[in-house]
Known about the structure:
fatty-acyl-CoA binding, Butyryl-CoA Dehydrogenase, subunit A, domain 3, 4-stranded antiparallel β-sheet, Butyryl-Coa Dehydrogenase, subunit A, domain 1, alpha+beta, 11 helices, 397 residues, Acyl-CoA_Oxase/DH_mid-dom_sf, single chain, FAD, 3-stranded mixed β-sheet, flavin adenine dinucleotide binding, glutaryl-CoA dehydrogenase activity
Amino acid sequence: MVHKIAEHQTQVPPATDLYQIDHLLSEEERMVRDTVRKFVQERVLPIIDQHFEQGTFPRQLIPELAELGLLGMHLDGYGCAGLSAVCYGLACQELEAGDSGLRSFISVQGSLAMFPIFAFGSDEQKQRWLPPMARGEVIGCFGLTEPDFGSDAAHMRTSARRDGNDYVLNGTKMWITNGSIADVAVVWARAEDGIRGFLVERGTPGFTTSDIHRKLSLRASVTSELHFDDCRVPVENMLPNVRSMRGPLSCLDEARYGIAWGTTGAARACFETALEYAKTRVQFQRPIGSFQLVQRKLALMATELVKSQLLALQLGRLKDEGLLHPVQISVAKRNNVREALETAREARTILGANGITLEYPASRHMNNLESVFTYEGTDDIHTLIIGQALTGLNAFS
Length: 397
């Protein structure tokens, strides 16, 4: 018996699951992960390089994403899958292993567009919008960031003035994922009684969009500006159940949660590519994986991947138990994006000159992660959120 135990303990765990996190997942969680992973391998990876190079979003995948139940999958009712936070996180992990742009689409649709309607909308708004959004028939976007106000969103200039049975919106929102393909925009504006959310439908007079081009990051994603010029929105299109920055900030927490998971997928994709390359690329009559410097890089990448995955998993468990605090999201978002970006850079060095081509995913992920490092709260902002939690002192004002 002792011999058998010792023999079992000497078995090396798989390189991409060094801490055997798979054993911490339920059967349902593994099924969700494996289903999305298979979809990414079969439907995303064969085409994503071309879309990244051409600067286009693979819109043809939207019905398939909806068929898999990935749109608003963590919401209950209204045609949504109602799965756990961990299941949602695992789906984000696998989607971002394909491309950050694809995970961003899912995050915006579910966490930034559907969630505020679910959390703050009227019964009529929920019934009207959520079922077709879950089916992928209606695409949403989230309008908060402005040209002059990103991190300091509380000082937004976009205004909403009550005029009879309408609100009149004026202002501009910038860096909006899905903006020009969205059928409805969840727009946050300054009204007389505070920050309010509005559902602005495509085609509303005074509402126009323009895409942001010449991007070096998130190229397989639609990024737009939203323009409001005396745009009249019916009173019934205002989200009635929130009035303050609590509305948009709670949505950002939902999206940041998905990012904390998603970036582990990008890191894993880069690590797997570098590991396989190191074992097969021969220089000086031996695989480069036999060199100490390369092994050190791989060891560091594997260790940070394990740490990030465990952070994300505990974050999900806390969310499912109703114990999650925003500062915990900041810890995971900040750490996991940082380490994924460093992993992508290290993977590129192992790949050498080949790493700058689209034949390998490292530089594509690296470029994408530069945006993820900034959006949904910059690295600096999350650092200060953590610092305030530790000291009780506010560094923002």
